[in-house]
Amino acid sequence: FLSLSLQAKMSRPLQARRLEGTDKNIWVEFVKLAATYSKVNLGQGFPDFPPPDFLKESFVRALSGENHMLHQYTRAFGHPPLVKILAQFFGKLLGRDLDPMTNVMVTVGAYQALFCCFQALVDEGDEVIIIEPFFDCYEPMVKMAGGTPVFVPLRPKAPKDGKLMSSADWQLDPTELASKFSERTKAIVLNSPNNPLGKVFSREELELIADLCVKHDVLCISDEVYEWLVYDGKEHIRIASLRGMWDRTIIIGSAGKTFSATGWKVGWTVGPNRLLQHLRTMHQNSVYHCATIAQEAVAQGFQRELELYGTPDSYFVQLPKELQQKRDWLVQSLDAVGMKPIIPEGTYFLVADISKFKSDVPDVPDSDEPYDSRFAKWMVKNKGLAAIPLSAFYSVAHKNNYSHFIRFCFAKEEATLKAANDILQKWKQEKTSP
Fold first, then answer.
1. How far lies 27's CA from each of 44, 117, 131, 401, in Å?
2. Rounded CA gap, 33 and 381, in Å?
3. What fold, for 25-51+315-429?
4. pLDDT in tens, 303-359
5. 80 touches 104 (CB < 8 A)
6. Is the pTM of this model over 0.85?
7. Where in the cell is it found (predicted)?
8. Domain boundaries along the sequence of the chain
């Protein structure tokens, strides 16, 4: 029996080639560290405050109401009430008539929307331009589709007069960007507002990208999950609204970020049918279907927001005001202890320069691990404060160029931010005391 069981053991490789080099995940590692050591978690990007009451009430109504069909399957590509209101809402924003059945598809969060885009549109040998720093899943998803990621970094320009840097100071070099486009380029991934920097791309920057997409006949995968979280009177411009871009752009959105309910995992894509038809093929052969009740509640949330659009009572007006205050509070807190924050124009996040704290965590020459990763691990273990290293948002070639920054999430309760400030203040006192 023993010899038979030894013979029965498989010797062929089990892992599909497409998984090579994609097994490590920053979130798996740092979420575990935060759960083990952190007193205050400003790492992962989710609010620790509740979604708005009207959204929770919509969910309860859907759950406990008379319509028992809300507990069953709905339309595979999106619950009809949700795709209808999304088509109405985004049609208004984009200034065009959208067909809810062909121009909108609902996904299991924006994450699945991205996966569908890469799997449905990227082939072996296709190149996909990714702007650095980037949300970390873009690179492995491109590789798993057989594509080749081509990276172009936002380059920081130091502000004058010793002011704090803004995310607007991180810019694309137009010549460098243009040089990345070739006949092999299938798509560019745009994330505005950008995670992790909080950069909101200006009209001029978007027009530069749009002109190159049109010139080279390239698709744009536009990750706009933070579209409502824009500060200081900045404007979120949708690249699909620019000349020549509707027909080649897929917009990705998220109810998790829109309504502060990341665990509901309701996302969507908006775009022309000629692109979305291929995403539907991918969708029907993977998850097939998203949670009906969550879609029903999100549909009701959007219905309310459409009626209140642009008014002071709109959640899309109130939330960025609240988050801007939280951002300013954390900026002040980090600046006071000598961690130089880069003031974000949007999102949940800000990046801070840890150069003045390097004496706490000595450099290890010739280490394979970027400095900021070792720093963030040391900080959570020794100070109880969790953050994410910025190098996690860069390709291998550029990781060490930006390894003196870490990313904090400020979409947190006041008490959480105050606890973080207490840790930082105590740390500063320890550094300055003899």
1. 8, 22, 20, 21
2. 8
3. Aspartate Aminotransferase, domain 1 (3.90.1150)
4. 999 999 999 999 999 999 999 999 999 999 999 999 999 999 999 999 999 998 888
5. no
6. yes
7. Cytoplasm, Cytosol
8. 25-51+315-429, 53-308
